[in-house]
Every structure is written in C-alpha cells, then in structure tokens.
Amino acid sequence: MNMSELTRYPAVAESFYPSDEQELLNLVSSLLEQAPRPVQKEMRIKALLVPHAGYAFCGHIAAGAYKYLENLAAGTVFLMGNAHAYLFEGIALDSHEFWLSPFGKVPVNKEMAEKFIAAAPSLVHYLNIAHHSDHVLEVQLPFLQKTLQPGFSILPLLFGENKTVSAQQRAEKLIGQALGEEDLIIASSDLSHFPAYHDANVIDSKTLEYIVNLDVRGLQRHVRSTLKRKIPHEDALFCGPDAVVTLMHIAAEKNWKARKISYCNSGDATWQDREAVVGYGAVVFYC
C-alpha cells in the first residue's frame, strides 16, 4: 500500500485556512498569541467545543479554546462532529492510517477504531467518503498540532443523519468507556445559522449558557421554543447537535465543569454585513 492510500489529504486547505506551511504557521501562531490567557491554569482540560468555519471568521474563537491545550501531552484526541458533506446513517470512522495537514501527519488510532466497530457494528463503520471532503474535523488539526505536544493520535468520528437518539447514547457509552486520563474530546459545532446579527447574539448567548450548565433538556427546550418563534432566517441553532449533546452527556457523567471562552458571529468580520450571520462559540470542559 502506498502513502497516498494510507493518508487522508487536506480537503479544505486554502479555502478554510492557508495551504502554505509558513503562512499557516504565522496565522495560527498569531491567533494563539492574541488569545486571552487561560484562567485557572490548574484546571485539567478534558474537552473543547469549538467552531469549524474558515479561520478568517472564527479562527480567533477557536484559538481562545486551543490556548488551553498549549504544551499539553495527550494520548488520543476524539474528534466529533456532524457530517456536512455526505449523507449516511450511523457514525463514520476513517480507515486511513494518517491525516495530513500543512504541518505534517497525525496518526489515526486504528486500534480504537476497530474496538468501536466491534462493540457497535450496526452503528459505527468505516466510511471514508464521508470524511473525504468534510471540513468540520479537518480544520481542527492545525490547532492541535501547534498546541499539543507531539505524539498524540486522533479518532475522527462523524455523525450521520440518525433519526433517533440511540446514536448519541451509544457514542456516549463507547467514548466514555474508552476515554483514558490523557485523552481529549474535541467536539465541533457552529451556532446560529443565518439570523440577523442581534438575533444571533441573543439566541447564541442562551445556547452557550445551557451548554456550560450541561443542561441537555434545557438546551432542547431552547431549540424548540426558539424555532417556534419563527425568527427570520434562523434555520438551526447549531449544526453539530449529536457532537454537542454527546459531549454534554459525557461531561455530566464524569462530573466535569464547563466554561465559556469566547463568542462572535460572522457579522463581526469587517467585510460582512449583518443581515444573515453564523454564530461561533468556544467552551472548555475540565475537572
């Protein structure tokens, strides 16, 4: 098997972040340097909730969370998101040995992937096409490579169009049982999709409050009541529902705490109007 068959190559380099290594290094380093210093350095970081839009829109929001990982040694990073580029049911793993970014290769924990498939073969499966052009997890790689100490692996998990909560519940069990002391969870979701600037700020503030409080039922009520109000152009309160709720349940089960790091929306970018925006927030989970 040649290297191209072993490696998942970047799909959105240049469109979501620079494809040139030095340009990307300059950008990520600058974003991390400008991010606020973490509070309570004695926190043991267990997970992050971060956005996945282009770095020009939300890179500074992601950097505020990833700054908490600087110089941290990690084992496996469980990357979770909802698929944006391919329709399927279940949870898609990727069978490549490595994921590549402009900063180099990161190994995939294939042993863990096989364990997940063996434990839940009707739910978890290899589906490389789901990962092939999806940006949700890929855009996390450069931040991980520039904050964590070398030597970590990743387990990319994309949720498909699952019609019941069983996928979340089984994912919670699989990840919760597999999670070691040195492992991390990175869940990715953007927030409000396409309301006006002020509406997004109000809606997303409440969404983040429920997430930080690990209040899944409150979050679900918030989603239902907000959508019933028919706020113009509000299509979704967040685009990673399975990833968000799975992380919240795991955090509650393990008695982690959560802290909101930062928030903005696309209307804060200088060249964007504020008629239809997307929200971006970052939360750190710790014990």
Brief sketch in words of this structure:
This protein has 287 residues and is of the alpha/beta class.
Could you explain how this protein is built, in words?
The protein is 37% helix and 20% strand. The model has no long low-confidence stretch (mean pLDDT 94). It has helices at 3-6, 21-34, 55-66, 110-119, 128-132, 141-147, 166-178, 197-212, 216-228, 241-253, and strands at residues 7-8, 45-50, 76-82, 91-93, 98-101, 104-107, 124-126, 153-159, 184-188, 257-265, 279-286. The chain has an eight-stranded mixed beta sheet with strand order 7-4-8-3-9-2-11-10, sandwiched between helices. Helix 7 (166-178) crosses helix 10 (241-253).
Give the strand line-up of the largest sheet.
7-4-8-3-9-2-11-10
The radius of gyration over CA amounts to 18 Å
In the CATH hierarchy, the architecture is 3-Layer(aba) Sandwich
Output the CATH class name: Alpha Beta
Q: Number of helical runs? A: 10
Q: pLDDT below 50 for ≥5 consecutive residues: which ranges? A: none
Structural class designation: alpha/beta
CATH-derived topology: Protocatechuate 4,5-dioxygenase, Chain B
Shape: globular
How many β-strand runs? 11
N-to-C terminal Cα separation, in Å? 42 Å
Helix content: 25-40%
State the domain count: 1
Helices and strands, in order, run as HEHEHEEEEHEHHEHEHHHEE
**How large a portion of the residues is in β-strands, by DSSP E?**
15-25%
User: CATH superfamily, please?
Assistant: LigB-like
Q: What is the averaged pLDDT score? A: 94
Q: How can the largest sheet be summarized? A: 8 strands, mixed
